[in-house]
UniProtKB/TrEMBL annotation:
<dbReference type="GO" id="GO:0009252">
    <property type="term" value="P:peptidoglycan biosynthetic process"/>
</dbReference>
<keyword id="KW-0133">Cell shape</keyword>
<feature type="binding site">
    <location>
        <begin position="23"/>
        <end position="24"/>
    </location>
    <ligand>
        <name>phosphoenolpyruvate</name>
    </ligand>
</feature>
<feature type="active site" description="Proton donor">
    <location>
        <position position="121"/>
    </location>
</feature>
<keyword id="KW-0808">Transferase</keyword>
<dbReference type="GO" id="GO:0008360">
    <property type="term" value="P:regulation of cell shape"/>
</dbReference>
<feature type="domain" description="Enolpyruvate transferase">
    <location>
        <begin position="9"/>
        <end position="428"/>
    </location>
</feature>
<dbReference type="InterPro" id="IPR050068">
    <property type="entry name" value="MurA_subfamily"/>
</dbReference>
<dbReference type="GO" id="GO:0071555">
    <property type="term" value="P:cell wall organization"/>
</dbReference>
<feature type="binding site">
    <location>
        <position position="311"/>
    </location>
    <ligand>
        <name>UDP-N-acetyl-alpha-D-glucosamine</name>
    </ligand>
</feature>
<keyword id="KW-0961">Cell wall biogenesis/degradation</keyword>
<comment type="pathway">
    <text>Cell wall biogenesis; peptidoglycan biosynthesis.</text>
</comment>
<comment type="function">
    <text>Cell wall formation. Adds enolpyruvyl to UDP-N-acetylglucosamine.</text>
</comment>
<dbReference type="Pfam" id="PF00275">
    <property type="entry name" value="EPSP_synthase"/>
</dbReference>
<dbReference type="GO" id="GO:0019277">
    <property type="term" value="P:UDP-N-acetylgalactosamine biosynthetic process"/>
</dbReference>
<keyword id="KW-0963">Cytoplasm</keyword>
<feature type="modified residue" description="2-(S-cysteinyl)pyruvic acid O-phosphothioketal">
    <location>
        <position position="121"/>
    </location>
</feature>
Amino acid sequence: MGKVLTIHGGVPLKGKVTVRGAKNLVPKAMVAALLGDSPSVLRNVPEIKDVAVVTSLLKIHGVLVSKDEATGDLTLDPTAAKTAPSNEIDAHAGDSRIPILFCGPLIHSIGEAFIPDLGGCRIGDRPIDYHLNVLRQFGAIVDKRPGGIAISAPEGLKGAKVSLPYPSVGATEQVLLTAVRAAGTTELVGAAVEPEILDLIALLQKMGAIIVVQNDRTIRIEGVPTLKGYNHKALPDRNESASWASAALVTKGDIFVEGAVQRDLTAFLNTYRKIGGEFEVTDDGIRFFHPGGPLNPLVLETDVHPGFMTDWQQPLVVALTQADGVSIVHETVYENRFGFTDALVTMGASVQLHRECLGAIPCRFGQRNFQHSAIISGPVKLKGADIDVPDLRGGFSHLIAALAAEGTSHVTGIELINRGYEKFMEKLIGLGARVELAELAKTA
Ligand SMILES: CC(=O)N[C@H]1[C@@H](OP(=O)(O)OP(=O)(O)OC[C@H]2O[C@@H](n3ccc(=O)[nH]c3=O)[C@H](O)[C@@H]2O)O[C@H](CO)[C@@H](O)[C@@H]1O
Ligand SMILES: C=C(OP(=O)(O)O)C(=O)O
């Protein structure tokens, strides 16, 4: 039975939240533990759904995963890794996008992999063609089956010269996790270089990997036959930090985000400043606040790092509904990431979607039928509504819109928020939000 969250809007969020390890690094670091011949220790691990899914997948593959209840640190011992029963793997189909990254590590440790159909946010087609192409170039045989894909490498995995048509985060990680123990050298051209990828590289280097990152999106990896376990503190979640920053702006509040790191948020902070939000950087985190007065509209394009991250877009769009004038947002990473704006329109926002590229550079989606540009006019008074959460970031944007709105909102599907926001209910209550969680009433 699901839950319904009742939100009484109009309360500025004020106080402190703590952000721990990044959703977009921690589960991948857990997968990397499979590559070691001794246990790894991962610190700063958040309690989020994707961590639970990967813990379960590792366990059914024979990896011992134990958690220090006092610190939350995970110890991952891969020394008894084994083939998992297919029914137990099937049970995880649709849970997250991380299983595809098990390919290389499982082939290196047990010689084969069965990967269940992927889940993750429904923000477009989200194909895995880049992943499968690079795996084939390493010598893997990919066999699509009902419920997932079977992958093996009878001749072993061998380093290759590979290039990505677009700097995909996941496909770059696929190459890294496969190449570090493949025979010979790998050259990856067109790599993504998000901070979470650089943190994964740091952790792999601790394990004994040899990886060179050039400043032209080329990564060179010299394969080594064995790796050892790592001890690593995960970098903090910059996407959660940016979400709370937008929550401060939208609700006219003041939030200190402990753990927010300026270096990983440069593009976000520039935009935050231009829109009229203020922030103060300290050694422990960043204070984000609304200084009073009107917010400024702006023109924004999402992009791969070091650009403005696509996962920051949705909460910031809510802030743009409060800006004084017309803003334009061009989403260039995913073809279908504005679905969440329907609910904002129901709440009173003025958002028009367009198929054209309303940005400086035409993107991959321009001549196709995707509504990937948004025109947002403000300021508008948001009013409470009944909302069903569509995906992680879209859902968070609905929460903060409801928190700023006049009146009461009822939000269902909030379980999706647990994929990337640790203890978000506790955090909201700690910031003064007037929220109540109840079981969804049974309908006849
Ligand atoms: C768990 C995780 O880390 N998720 C993040 C990761 O997702 P993820 O790794 O899935 O995103 P990618 O960077 O791979 O996707 C970028 C673009 O490439 C396309 N593509 C990707 C792979 C492929 O085989 N074929 C293909 O066409 C995608 O459809 C998308 O249009 O990076 C995204 C972009 O920063 C973030 O929004 C997600 O939060
Ligand atoms: C798109 C996201 O996540 P995932 O890739 O895990 O679906 C996200 O974190 O906003």
